[in-house]
Specification:
CATH architecture of the largest domain: 3-Layer(aba) Sandwich
Number of helices: 16
Helix content: 25-40%
Strand order of the largest sheet: 4-3-5-6-11-10
Order of helices and strands: HEHHEHHEHEHEHEHEHHEHEHEEHHH
Strand content: 15-25%
Radius of gyration: 21 Å
CATH topology of the largest domain: Rossmann fold
């Protein structure tokens, strides 16, 4: 059970929380970038162990949540076409588009299938040469290498009936956009360890230097998160700003160079829209010119779709960290996991889903802890 219990020791967690309380002398706002970290924080009650001076701001690091509404509608339009096998991971099927979701398309006769790897979709293209097979490729840097490999294999094998609807986003430009926002309150970041396992953290020192903000790379277990917070508070209290790697068992400075080379071949960096946030320059991957024929959005001519978000949904504010989910008037009323208005209530990494699932249906008072 190594790595399952080693980083969940309650006594160690209490000692780390006590050290954080002892160190903290003023208010600090720390953003955990990844939705997986958000769920770990709420599931394990980490936010309730911290002193009242420390606010954890939930960042836009949920790939399902930031997939733009127009891309969801593109997926729905493609999936509804005759002769198409539309493949996706299961967490995308209930994400609401403008009028429906992929489950509704499936119930109306669309051939929508859940797969567990993009290479499963490539295998379907081999098995069904008379059908168009489309894979919904979303995510941050973590899932990008597997998606790139699927397109690379399809091109190498000459599978002309395979394509990918791509909506990949990048973490460093998002951090830069958050720090440049006039409404920004973030004073430090907990960076996502799985992203850095692919990309390393060579991209972060320039951000730290430019914005004078600590960035600590950490994992997802309770002690990982607490260690990240502890290291961040130490820097903040000392007036320092540096990159620290608190996830050295997985992350290196350079990252996985083989994966990065594949990404550079298959994708090209460009502007990307983030759901609820807007366009962030140079924040996403698009298929490169060599793989243009495998771009489902162009193959099926769905690039001109225009959409409008629900006026009741404030998921964009949640993703930017300007409000907590409970500040949205629709939270837990019009918007629930069974009747979601936005992706943040659907995704397994969404902040709204975390608040709902772990009983944070109102703003809770912190635990009273004697220092």
């Amino acid at each position: 059970m190594k790595y399952l219990t080693e980083f969940r020791d309650g006594e160690v967690a209490q000692r780390m929380a006590a050290e954080i309380r002892q160190l903290t002398t003023r208010p600090w706002a720390i953003m955990e970038v990844c939705g997986g970290q958000t769920h770990s924080i709420l599931r394990n009650g980490i936010d309730q162990l911290l002193p009242s001076e420390i606010e954890l701001i939930h960042g836009p690091g949920c790939p399902v949540c930031v997939t733009p509404l127009e891309v969801i509608d593109q997926a729905l339009a493609i999936a509804a076409q005759a002769g198409v096998i539309f493949c996706s991971f299961g967490d995308m099927l209930r994400v609401p588009g403008s009028e429906k979701d992929l489950f509704r398309v499936k119930s109306e006769g669309g051939d929508v299938r859940v797969v567990y790897s993009p290479l499963d979709a490539v295998a379907l293209a081999r098995q069904h040469p008379d059908r168009e097979v489309v894979f919904f490729g979303i995510g941050f840097e973590t899932t990008a290498p597997a998606n790139a490999m699927a397109v690379h294999v399809a091109r190498r094998e000459g599978l002309r009936n395979f394509s990918m609807l791509v909506s990949h986003v990048l973490v460093p430009p998002a951090i830069d956009a958050i720090m440049r926002s006039p409404a920004n309150r973030v004073q430090a970041f907990l960076a996502a360890g799985h992203v850095c396992s692919v990309m390393g953290f060579w991209q972060y020192p320039p951000l730290v230097k430019q914005h004078q903000v600590p960035i600590v790379i950490t994992g997802f277990e309770p002690l990982d998160v607490l260690d990240g917070i502890l290291r961040t508070v130490r820097q903040l209290e000392r007036g320092e700003a540096a990159v620290e790697n608190a996830y050295a068992r997985v992350v290196t400075f350079d990252g996985n160079r083989t994966a990065q080379a594949l990404l550079e071949d298959v994708f090209t960096v460009g502007d990307r829209a983030w759901r609820g946030i807007g366009v962030i320059p140079q924040s996403g991957w698009h298929l490169s010119a060599a793989y243009r024929d495998y771009d489902a959005a162009h193959r099926f001519s769905v690039t001109g779709i225009r959409t409008q978000e629900s006026p009741l949904c404030r998921s964009g504010d949640v993703l930017q960290g300007t409000i907590k989910p409970t500040a949205c008037s629709a939270f837990g009323a019009q918007c629930t996991p069974r009747t979601p208005l936005g992706a943040t209530m659907v995704s397994t990494e969404g902040a709204c889903a975390a608040y709902f699932n772990y009983g944070r249906t109102v703003q809770l008072e912190r635990l009273t802890i004697t220092r």
